[in-house]
Design a protein that fits this description.
The protein is α/β, with parallel strands linked by helices and 440 residues long. The chain is 39% helix and 11% strand. The protein folds into 2 domains: 285 residues, Alpha/Beta hydrolase fold, catalytic domain (Rossmann fold, 3-Layer(aba) Sandwich); 142 residues, no CATH class.
């Protein structure tokens, strides 16, 4: 059925709710948020679908527009401050002379296609009310990489006339929603087997793929306290009891994440799973773990006999996949960057994305580069400057980059003398199945 989700997603390419630009109000001049480059000019607005946005124009514009899709996703109503946070991180884009435009997306939660539509709607607002760019690029970070890739499938499919010239995907969640989050169900069942406090025995039981029941009042602080109670996640290693240390090591080893990332993933496997189950899947299960064999604990036999097991609902998988999975049908240059030791979005997801583009016959449009970093949210200014420069050379001059050329060029663009350049041109990630057990 996951293959069926890909077919349904392909059938939906081009179907969007983006109105013509004349239906959109002009942007309004506004004070730039803290962290925007000195001399930049900022504009704000809210599009016709209710998505706030921020546009940042450099003092001297290169003519390049970068449409930025933020990570997350955030839950709840959209907040303009989300774009303010991102321009602090991505100020290097404007410092390079490029205009930067970011939608906060009209709805919170794991909704990829609507976020792609919001990104395209903002591009049209920019063209209609701000300026006509010479080149327009899509940039997606983390979960936003799946949004940017989806936008490229919708508006830059092979053979289509595309408003976008190229795509940069960084630290991307690129395995598709029906595959990228499987390990978080694994986390929930392994954690519950070892800790038994999410939910507690005296609380109403619910299937863990649901994240939380709709009426739950559990807070993030309360969940952190529970995880600390069992695993000692909020205290130094020396202060953990032997039992806490044993269980934390088991969880991290079985799931394949650093111990420091367990609580963050547990949060996503709680509230993001709740959003997927209640708002994207009609209360049905998108994720299952039938037949999965867990390895890495001090007693795998007992673990596999004791964990809860769930079966994914095929219709829920297909519906969620139509929104969140990627077909690889992108007809313009795509450059990806990923930290080899990314603790949040596994680098092996890049292999899944390459396979999708190859299956679509578009892998000739793909270059993938990898860095020896351990961060997810940001690599280094020099790494992104190198990527943007290489992508622009590719789309403007036809000079397709290679990982080796990127690594060679990076030190010249690094104000820190090359210390931010850690590209590894020889690296190739393994399959996602080597990191996350495949589902039946």
């Amino acid at each position: 059925m996951k293959g069926g989700a890909l077919l349904l997603a392909a059938a939906l390419v081009g179907c969007s709710s983006v109105p013509p630009p004349e239906a959109e109000a002009p942007s309004q001049a506004a004070a730039c948020p803290s962290g925007a480059p000195v001399g930049a000019r900022c504009l704000r607005g809210q599009d016709s679908a209710g998505a706030p946005y921020l546009i940042v124009m450099p003092a001297s514009w290169s003519g390049v527009l970068v449409m930025h899709a933020h990570g997350g996703p955030a839950l709840g109503a959209p907040k303009p401050e989300r774009a303010d946070e991102d321009i602090k991180r991505w100020a290097v884009t404007v410092q390079a002379g490029h205009a930067w435009a970011a939608s906060v997306f009209r709805q919170g939660g794991v909704a990829v296609r609507s976020a792609a539509e919001d990104t395209e709607r903002l591009r049209r607002i920019f063209v209609q009310h701000v300026a006509q760019p010479k080149v327009t690029l899509l940039h997606g970070q983390s979960w936003g990489a799946s949004v940017a890739a989806k936008a490229a499938e919708m508006y830059a499919a092979p053979g289509a006339t595309s408003p976008y010239a190229g795509v940069l995907l960084t630290s991307g969640v690129l395995a598709g929603g029906t595959r990228a989050y499987d390990f978080r169900l694994d986390l929930r069942v392994v954690y519950q087997y070892l800790c038994g406090n999410h939910p507690r025995a005296d609380e109403p039981a619910y299937p863990l793929w649901m994240g939380l029941p709709a009426d739950s009042r559990l807070t993030r602080a309360e969940l952190a306290a529970r995880a600390d109670e069992c695993l000692g996640v909020r205290r130094p290693a020396a202060q953990r009891s032997p039992e806490q240390a044993r269980k934390l090591k088991a969880v991290a080893s079985v799931i394949g994440v650093p111990e420091s990332s367990v609580l963050g993933h547990l949060n996503w496997a709680t509230w993001h799973f709740q959003d997927i189950a209640l708002h994207r899947a009609g209360g049905r299960s998108v994720f299952g773990n039938e037949g999965v064999r867990y390895r890495g604990s001090d007693d795998d036999v007992a673990l596999n006999a004791g964990v809860l097991r769930y079966r994914a609902d095929p219709q829920a998988v297909a519906a969620f996949g139509a929104d969140a999975d990627l077909t690889g049908r992108i007809g313009i240059p795509v450059l990806t960057l990923h930290a080899i030791h990314d603790p949040t979005a596994f680098v092996e997801m890049e292999t899944s994305f390459r396979e999708a583009m190859r299956a679509a016959g578009q892998d000739g449009h793909l270059v993938q580069a990898f860095s020896d970093h351990r961060e997810h949210s940001y690599l280094s200014d020099a790494t992104y400057l190198t990527a943007f420069e290489a992508l622009l050379r590719w789309v403007q001059r036809g000079e397709k980059p290679t990982p080796a050329a990127l690594a060679e060029r990076c030190p010249a663009l690094d104000p820190a003398g090359g210390s931010g350049c850690r590209l590894r041109p020889e690296y190739q990630p393994a399959s996602l199945a080597s990191r996350v057990a495949a589902r039946h």
